[in-house]
Specification:
By secondary structure, the protein is an alpha/beta fold. Among the domains are: 154 residues, no CATH class; 88 residues, no CATH class. Helix content is 52%, strand content 9%. It contains 15 helices and seven strands. Strands 4-7-3-1-2-5-6 form a seven-stranded mixed sheet. Helix 6 packs across helix 9 and helix 13 runs antiparallel to helix 14. The protein is flat and about 70 Å long. Bound molecules: zinc ion. The site of zinc ion (ZN) has 4 residues, from helix 4 and helix 6. The site of zinc ion has 4 residues, from helix 4 and helix 6.
Length: 408
């Protein structure tokens, strides 16, 4: 009997919660972006389809909406997308960005071509909600990159999500800035691409720009970029070895953008160059930049040298080894802090001492072989959480101090 009553109570509670949620369900849109759900009945294919504007009764969508809406950094990138359409004229109407939350998808991505149509609760097509792409697909589950709305309160998950959204928005900004869909995205983009992959000059340029914007607007940092661009952890990757190969590598291009943006008014200057000259490779962008802003030429040359200097495999290996060993030590320290069992604790202490000893030996070896200081080696491998933020970055780039182990 008791169980039965509990069930009734649970059902009543569920019904009342549901009605409260329905009562306050509001469309998840504003003038900058709109959150959409693909419609299963009417279609909703990959780039073309019919969509409903998600509302606040949909917990998954509303958590994502709240994160997008309450982030001042993302507001800036969304406003930049709006201004890229209106030229900053408040009287001109701009289309909001379409963010499609899907149950399952390939990855967080931007569909450039196609059209989408939305309709209201009455089932009729709603012209108010009729948009042209780009749209950004946000998969709730994926083999590659999923967004878990429940984890968005975690700072690092939130930053990764915002970085991705700003990255995809940057592709849309670039499309508006140039007036057409960026060249070079296909076919490579369809097969996948990553920071250290050597692709083509054009793909590296468009993706490197988007990676730079993602970090800039999410509060992430590319300050240890000389290392970051090689942080692949995949031995099958062909590391770029020459200046020319570096220019075909998106992580390198992102690092160059990042460093140029730190020059006085650098961020705005980059966008003036993109708008006026429409360059398609980093080499052309830099040439155009120096023509438009000759007083920055020397600084730009230094940035190019810094980022394009070929890197030796042994040095990459050295850094990866140090990084892995530091991760091992950090994990053991966490495990020791978490365990309540004195025996496990003791054995982990022994492991920790061993790991610290190995780490010390490794550092000493690289210090004696390459002549680097301990400070350079350890600051080069500092964990993400201690990186400076992109937007307020007054950061000192340790790697560009001239003592870099990676610029031989
Ligand atoms: Zn991209």
């Amino acid at each position: 009997m008791k169980v039965f009553r509990r069930e009734i109570f649970a059902i009543l509670l569920f019904l009342s919660l549901f009605s409260v949620m329905s009562l306050f369900a509001e469309p998840l849109q504003n003038d900058l972006f709109v959150v959409l759900r693909p419609d299963g009945i009417m279609g909703g294919s990959f780039t073309h389809g019919t969509f409903k504007v998600a509302d606040s009764a949909d917990a998954e969508c509303s958590a994502i909406y709240d994160c997008l809406k309450n982030s001042p950094e993302l507001k800036k990138v969304f406003e930049m997308y709006r201004d890229s359409q209106t030229g900053g004229d408040p009287n001109k109407k701009a289309l909001p960005l379409n963010l499609v939350v899907q149950k399952k998808g390939l990855m967080l991505m931007n569909s450039f071509s196609g059209y989408i149509t939305t309709y209201g609760k009455d089932g009729k097509l709603n012209t108010d909600y009729q948009y042209v792409c780009p749209k950004i697909d946000i998969p709730l589950s994926s083999d590659n990159f999923a967004v878990d709305p429940k984890k968005l309160s975690d700072p690092s998950a939130r930053m990764e999500f915002m970085n991705g959204i700003a990255h995809e928005t940057a592709h849309a900004i670039m499309k508006q800035t140039y007036g057409y869909i960026p060249k070079g995205l296909n076919p490579f983009a369809a097969f996948g691409h990553w920071q250290g992959q050597m692709s083509t000059n054009q793909l590296a340029f468009t993706e490197g720009y988007a990676e730079f914007m993602g970090a800039h607007f999410s509060g992430d940092s590319l300050d240890d970029s000389t290392l970051w661009r090689k942080e692949m952890g995949d031995n099958t990757v062909q590391y770029p070895k020459t200046r020319e190969e570096n220019m075909k590598t998106e992580g390198v291009v992102a690092s160059i953008f990042w460093d140029i943006a730190k020059l006085p008014d650098g961020f705005n200057k980059i966008h003036r160059v993109l708008k006026e000259k429409k360059p398609w490779t980093i080499e052309c962008m830099v040439k155009d930049f120096k023509e438009m802003f000759p007083s920055d030429a020397a600084a730009i040359d230094a940035i190019m040298d810094e980022n394009l200097t070929p890197v030796k495999d042994s040095i990459i290996g050295c850094w990866l080894e140090i990084k892995n060993m530091r991760a091992q030590i950090e994990n053991l320290e966490k495990e020791i802090a978490a365990t309540g069992n004195p025996i496990t604790k003791t054995s982990k202490f022994i492991d920790l001492q061993k790991a610290k000893g190995n780490y010390r030996n490794l550092l000493n070896r690289y210090i004696s072989i390459y002549g680097y200081t301990e400070e350079v080696l350890t600051s080069a491998t500092r964990p993400v959480s201690t990186r400076q933020t992109g937007i307020n970055s007054g950061a000192v780039n340790v790697i560009s101090s001239g003592t870099s182990p990676f610029s031989e």
